[in-house]
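Table S2 (continued). Query chain:
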Amino acid sequence: MKYIKIFLLGILSLFILGFIFLFFYSGPAINLDTAGQFEYEPLKSIELNQYEKEKQYISLSDETQIAANIFLPTISKSEKVPTIFIFTPYNRSIVLPDLAWWEKAGAKAFTGNWGPVFNGLPNRKTLNTLTSNGYAVVVADMRGTGASSGFTSAMSPQLRKDGIEMINWIAEQDWSDGKVGMQGPSYLGWIQLAIASEKPDALKCISPSIMGSDIYTEAQKQGGILMTKWGKNFNRQLRLLNLNALDRKNKMPVFPAEPVFDEDGDGEIMDEIPLYTDLAEPLFVTAAKPTYADGVVREKNTYFNHTKDHLKNIWTAEIAKDWEYRDDKLVVYGDTMSLEDITPGFFVPAIKKSKIPILMTGGWFDGFEGVTKLYASLQGENPAHFVMAPRFHMPMTVPPAYKELFDYQGEYEDQLLSLRIQFFDYYLKGEENGFDKIDPVQLYTCYKGWESFDSYPPKSTTYETLFFNETNQLTKDSSNSGLDIYEVDFSHASDYDAEKDNRWNMATTTDSLMIRTQLDKKCMVYETSVLENNLQVTGHTIVELFLSSNQNDADVYVYLSDVAEDGTVYYVSEGQLRAGWHRQVEDDEQVNFLYDIKPDLPWHGFDKGGYHDEPLANDTIISMRFDLTPTSWVFQKGHKLRVSIAGADFENFEFNPTLCPDGKLENCQSTKLNIHRGRAQMSKIELPILK
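Corresponding output:
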């Protein structure tokens, strides 16, 4: 018994010592794993917690209250500093209520923070790296989001005006040296491009990530086909976030934004969030008036009333419903809004004129593949830099499965952070750190590694054509005539893991390999012979199908894949197009001929007047020529290159309404796609080969 007591006392002592250690622990040290790529000497020693956090409301000219977190580096007490501004609709910081003790201990061990408040953007690593390097960081909730007041619609032009006001406010602060840079992914990348098109004086550089060129085709209707799963998931995610919901069970958990101030003055911030009273959804804002866990009545109910403003938001699903054609006008709060007001491709002329430096990044597996158009159209005009890696929209790094597959060295998140700090140091601090000597284009080529170029697409890229033949092969021989008949399997879905994820479902975290070995059994497949040498494809593959059908319309999905020696089929890229949009128009029409958009790729207008209701009626043979998402991939010796063709992507995209009028799988009509071959109708693919 004595030894048992001693043993238990020892365990208790260790437990107490552990908690004492955690109490003073600042979290793990930050060491960037760049594997030598973009390594930057000043970041070899990053000091933790070299900042003070302030929260406040910033009043805009229309009296909208913008919730902001301000992180001031220690150096700002003695000298003025440049600022990195992050403007977000996804909550600048969050509250995780009801954390169990072991969750608090775990949070402290991994982040140095017990909670319940956690900074959202930037993450701990980025925040400490920036402040340790002498930058102030301002993170603000857009109007209609987080703890800010007001209401908004997705990508409203008003947000651009708000952002400019925020930048001007930052430049006027005592701690600011008047120079502001911006960073952030996706929606946060869009707002940077929008603001840069107005070029407020204090904005000196921007670093947008994973944002495309055309909001209609990339965020709503790829190939003119509605992206159902992404649209539904993103609408729900954004709505719950903007209404400060609490949903731990959601695939992407949702937590309320951190309140700006402690209204009842008890030193607790968590009790400023009202009780969740809605039984149907995890919301508090649908209540007539708020109730609080501490039972104290607030005088102003600031957090509750600001969140109640957000109920007036126009959600993305509402916009999608009214935006059937690309040239449709949208009425938002009584104002007419068109594509020119919200899509990044139309911001390019003003951004060019501004000459603002840009560090633009994207992912080979991201849904916003038009990032290549943005960069290619800006290069040569702005100091523009471009990075592409094998990443998805989420997570923000290369997933472990792909790191292993490609033998990827280092952590992409760290490599990009290192390069971004070099970029900011050069353009905000004026440091001669060699950033201007780095080649402007950095592409990660799958199975090869990082490559540097002076332009995108690389100048050494040439297109080579492979034709479809009667034995389902891809060859350089174009003499094979005939047609191949594919019976559409409407149950085909580009789902790659237990959660049915793919590159288009951008509101979730994708981390599994995209393998098509079983999926391609529902497709028409063509492939090359075994490759005798490595073949590098860098850029946009173009496919042209000469098609007829027993139906009047069709949707076509084309997948480019890599067949390994063991037979595993690895997804590389894809494209899709509704037959009603098969007619090509000048690609510069997508920006109303304001400039020469690059690279030159097939474009189909997607305007109401350009749609053909029955393109395949009366056995008509049409040409469907469209590009696939960009890639940089080495098809290795001993592998095969494969093209697979489907007529549906179940649940990821809407069914063609002509073929499945009620949208139900069991009621889709029997559909045959006739793929024509021969001199008059040469179905083929054009590969961008880098030699």
